[in-house]
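Async update (no meeting this week)

Hi team, since we skipped the sync, here's where things stand on the single-chain job. The sequence we agreed to prioritize is pasted below, unchanged from the tracker. I ran it this morning and attached the output directly underneath so nobody has to dig for it. Comments welcome in thread, and please keep replies under the output.
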Amino acid sequence: MDIIQLIDARHKTRNFTSLASQFVENSQQIEALVKTALSDLNYPYPEYASWLLLHVAKLNATLLEPFQKAIIDRILTCENQSTLRNLVAISTHLLLTHYKEGEFLDRLISIVKNNENKVALIVYSIYKLVDFTLKYPEIKHEIVEILKIKQENGLSPALRIGIRNYTIRTKKIDLLN
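Output:
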């Protein structure tokens, strides 16, 4: 069954995300799932394929390493909030790479700054910014200032937790200075 047929048949079922284990077991199908997730197809295909891919990443992120550059490329261009959220969440399961590192960092910062973005997308972006901050401690001040501005606008509980987790995970930078 191809990915489109699979999504059509199963995306409204309760256990849709349980399909991730099938992709982990049959990893040769992951490339087709990635292509669908990164595509410009109409709803629901990229949204559900990327959601399923996120669950694959949670089970075995190393299976997605060969596709990391393509995932980053799509993060840089994607405007669909649901797909973008899933792709950024996937990136939190992958190690940083030098590939388009500056553009990726800028994109994450712009996502966090934009109050029009959905909370989950912002929170996942903050979590990925932890990796960048640990690698480049000199950016912490800028990130903290952006997060302070976010706090002035009032926060949802999820965003409050995301900011708190960023602070906790990057605290050792302060201890080293």
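Quick observations from my side:
The radius of gyration is 17 Å.
Residues 98-177 form one domain.
Reply here if anything looks off.
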